[in-house]
């Protein structure tokens, strides 16, 4: 039997939501062992005064399995 834990992280990218997810998971895997998956709980963008997107942000719920 295994036990998993879920933690929330926020990640950002200047390129896309997909890149924000990818970089968030990559960074989480450096600290958390046994990362098994994630889901996007929320998305948002930061815009300038002309309406151009400056940054894409995602709120990720990251699942990892606890070691015995």
Question: How would you describe the overall organization of this protein?
Answer:
This is Dodecin family protein. 22% of the residues lie in helices and 53% in strands. The protein is built from one helix and three strands, in the order βαββ. The radius of gyration is 14 Å and the shape is elongated. It has a three-stranded antiparallel sheet, with helices on one face. It is an alpha+beta fold and 68 residues long.
Features of this protein?
68 residues; alpha+beta; 1 helix; elongated; Dodecin; Dodecin family protein; Dodecin-like; Dodecin-like_sf
Order of helices and strands: EHEE
Tally of DSSP helical segments: 1
Shape annotation: elongated
Total count of strands: 3
SSE-based structural type: alpha+beta
CA distance, first residue to last residue: 10 Å
Q: Give the strand order, joined by hyphens, for the main sheet.
A: 1-3-2
Name the beta content range: over 45%
**Helicity level, as a percent range?**
10-25%
What radius of gyration results from the CA coordinates? 14 Å
Mean pLDDT value: 95
Low-pLDDT segments, ≥5 res: none
Profile the largest sheet.
Answer: 3 strands, antiparallel
Oligomer: single chain
Organism: Elongatibacter sediminis
Pfam family, one: Dodecin
Protein name: Dodecin family protein
């Amino acid at each position: 039997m295994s036990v998993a834990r879920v933690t929330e992280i926020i990640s950002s990218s200047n390129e896309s939501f997909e890149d924000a997810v990818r970089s968030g998971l990559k960074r989480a895997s450096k600290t958390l062992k046994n990362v098994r998956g994630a889901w996007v709980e929320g998305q948002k963008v930061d815009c300038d005064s002309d309406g151009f997107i400056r940054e894409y942000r995602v709120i990720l719920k990251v699942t990892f399995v606890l070691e015995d």
